[in-house]
Amino acid sequence: MGQLFSDASKNEDNGDLVSSFTKYFKKIKTENKIISQETIHLIELHLKNGNIQGVNSVINDALKNIDSIPINIAVTGESGAGKSSFINALRGVGPEDQGAAEEGVTETTMMRTPYKHPKIKTLTFWDLPGIGTKNFPPKDYLEKVNFQEYDFFVIVSALRFTKHELDLAKAIRFMKKNYYFVRTKVDIDLQNEKESKPRTFEREKTLKQIRSYCLNTFTQNNMDVPQIFLISNKHLSDYDFPVLMDTLIKDLSNQKRHNFMLSLPNITEAVIDRKHKSMQQHIWLEAFKAGLLATVPVVGILTNDVKKLKVKLNHYRVLFGVDDASLEAIAKDSQVPVEQLKKIIKSPFLLETKNKETLEEMLLKCLKIFASIRGGPLASGLYFRKTFYLEFLFLDTVTEDAKVRLRETYSKI
After folding, report:
1. Phi/psi of residue 248, each to 5°?
2. How many other CB atoms sit within 10 Å of the CB of residue 410?
3. What pLDDT is stored for residue 3 in this prediction?
4. Helices marked H in 264-385
5. 12 — phi, psi (to 5°)?
6. Quick one: which of 75, 395, 102 has its CA closest to 248?
7. Does residue 264 sit in helix, strand or coil?
8. Helix (H, G, I), strand (E, B) or coil at 148
9. Angle at 265 between CA 260 and CA 270, to 5 degrees
10. Rounded average pLDDT over 28-47
11. Is residue 102 within 8 Å of 111, Cβ to Cβ?
């Protein structure tokens, strides 16, 4: 659970607040932080000077940026390369679902088309026409697809990358933007190879050959050899998809990292843990801000608090894929009875209480757990609304639900 307490004897000590804040973010790797180092230093400076309103303003602005700043990802490649299915996989939707990017063996993308992520409204994937098509010749391509709008480009191929795509990569790099080469449909290649050479087939050897085939294209065109990500749009947890996601997260700015992290499909326990840590930072910052500004003693949970808590709990369940709609979709795809999945999920029942005392008892238990943790990042004298303690409890429970659900569905495949 999130650590919130330290030495109670230092309640009024600004130095302790600085130490607590610094200690919390020091233990988080740079590529996982959701606020920049500059923002962290500015908060520390305000804390040292006792400028509580300044701290509040900086954290407010940081959280507002995180929650509102747009993320635009461009996906391009030749017809039939799997651009649309790649976008659908990232958005967690099937090809027949409402709002899905149209998939097909012919060129279905005749103009740049935006696809919003269904859970993260600030995240948009842009399905771009392949470079070199009639309406998008190479010399005009970047201008016609509004190059400057995107955070980065993903260049997709099902075979080897064409000269047009290599030239596009050079132009993107010249304009100081990032690009990533993705080789799709490796599962189909492996299956074909296995069927044609059943006695001599070796999975790793075939993957190495596919990667070498792609890399040779760059060597032959006198280009530095980039990292190639081999993926299957149907089996995201296999091959290089998790590595690709880790790379994208590291390369995004701090304020965009959080929402992109939350958008990732819940396909591995590592992804679920990263989401948990990112969401924990967000809650922690809100709690820190509330603690600094609080001037009233802790009071009981009010009806309005319960309503807000229900909204938060449902939000976490959606993000981690354990809400009712997600469970029904997962049950259908994995051919596991939905009742079986719902039976192993605990989070829906966290607020199913008939009286306020039960919630108070839950909070008291939660407080005792937090108070028993030594070396927590916030001074115990700070006032925290009870809802924050419960939010950490919700987050931990939903995270564990996501892992249990993942193990249950994978054990049936």
Report:
1. -65, -40
2. 12
3. 44
4. 269-293, 303-319, 324-334, 338-343, 356-371
5. -95, 5
6. 75
7. coil
8. helix
9. 90
10. 91
11. no
Reading the block at residue 360, the tokens are 């108070």
Two tokens, residue 315: 């939000």
Q: Which residue has the higher pLDDT, 16 or 242?
A: 242
Pairing of strands 123-127, 113-116: antiparallel
What is the secondary structure of 208-239 as a DSSP string? Answer: HHHHHHHHHHHHHTT-----EEE--SS-TTST
User: For residue 293, what pLDDT band results from cuts at 50, 70 and 90?
Assistant: low
| CB half-sphere exposure, 327, CA atoms < 13 A | 22
* Structure tokens given for 273: 């843990």
Which residue has better confidence, 9 or 387?
387
What residues contact residue 31 under an 8 Å CB cut-off, 6+ apart? Answer: 249, 250
Please tell me the predicted confidence (pLDDT) of residue 145.
85
Name which of 146, 94, 147, 93 is nearest 120 in CA terms.
93
Distance from C-alpha of 83 to C-alpha of 283, rounded to nearest angstrom:
35
Distance CA 365, CA 359 (A): 10
Determine the distance from the C-alpha atom of residue 132 to the mean position of all C-alpha atoms in its chain, rounded to a whole number.
33
**pLDDT level of residue 105 (50, 70, 90 thresholds):** low
